[in-house]
TrEMBL record:
One Gene Ontology term from the biological process aspect of the record: proteasome regulatory particle assembly
UniProt xrefs under SUPFAM superfamilies: PDZ domain-like (SSF50156)
Chain ranges of the PDZ domain: 120-191
Species of origin: Stomoxys calcitrans
GO CC, alphabetical: cytoplasm; nucleus
Keyword check for Ribonucleoprotein: no
Protein family membership: Belongs to the proteasome subunit p27 family.
Sorted UniProt keywords: Chaperone
Protein name: 26S proteasome non-ATPase regulatory subunit 9
InterPro entries, per the entry: Nas2_N, PDZ, PDZ_sf, PSMD9
Source organism superkingdom: Eukaryota
Length: 217
């Protein structure tokens, strides 16, 4: 079995590769912008069917081809990153369960000591909130999923208290990468643990979720 550190190292390496791919895609995108913002589908011939003389057709074609290849690589890389994130999450939970089992007799001493909501699942594995919902827009994907203001989220996809870096950008990254896909959430509400499925998507309001998320203090 791959250890957590090994999985984390692989994930960090892939994230660096992802960033490099995005830089390359942006660079080729700039070439398209510089050529009359022709984009990926703009015409390369004029109204009479002759090659346009206001753009560098060779560079545009080369940039488009490179962007397609890089986007395919980026898509495949994101699938691998998501798999590793789930693996890291599973390893962290297994490690936490082992630790909690060995320290079971000491759990009573820590009851109520945390300011953040903490609930036990099956009496063994505690889940701790990492972010909090402060507002949910009417008709938003968040409301359709069943989220409410003041809900606290212990697990957002593969992110939980064991691997959360206390930066909302990591939550945003999951949302962007999982657009139109199902994200499992573990929500703490009134000392209950709820399993909710959230699907980030475009809607008439702002963002992909339609809710305000803040860090738990």
């Amino acid at each position: 079995m791959i250890g957590p550190n090994s999985t984390k190292d692989k994930l960090l390496k892939l994230m660096a590769e992802k960033k490099d791919l995005e830089i390359q895609i942006d660079a080729y995108g700039s070439i398209l912008s510089e050529n009359d913002n022709v984009g990926m589908r703009g015409p390369l011939v004029d109204s009479e069917g002759f090659p346009r003389n206001d753009i560098d057709i060779y560079k545009v074609r080369q940039a488009r081809q490179q962007i397609i290849c890089l986007q395919n690589n980026h898509k495949a890389l994101m699938k691998t990153i998501e798999t590793l994130m789930h693996q890291l999450h599973a390893e962290a939970r297994q490690q936490q369960l082992t630790q909690q089992t060995s320290d079971m007799h000491l759990n009573d001493r820590s009851n109520g000591s945390s300011e953040n909501m903490e609930v036990c699942v099956n009496g063994l594995t505690p889940v701790k909130a990492i972010v909090k919902i402060t507002h949910v827009d009417a008709g938003s994907p968040a409301e359709k999923a069943g989220l409410r203001s003041q809900d606290e989220i212990a697990e957002f996809g593969s992110i939980n208290c064991n691997n959360f870096n206390k930066e909302l950008s990591s939550i945003g990254s999951v949302v962007n990468h999982m657009r139109n896909q199902r994200i499992p959430l573990k929500v703490l509400r009134s000392n209950e643990v709820l399993d909710i499925i959230l699907i980030p998507q475009r809607w008439p309001g702002n963002g992909l979720l339609g809710c305000n998320i803040v860090l738990c203090e």
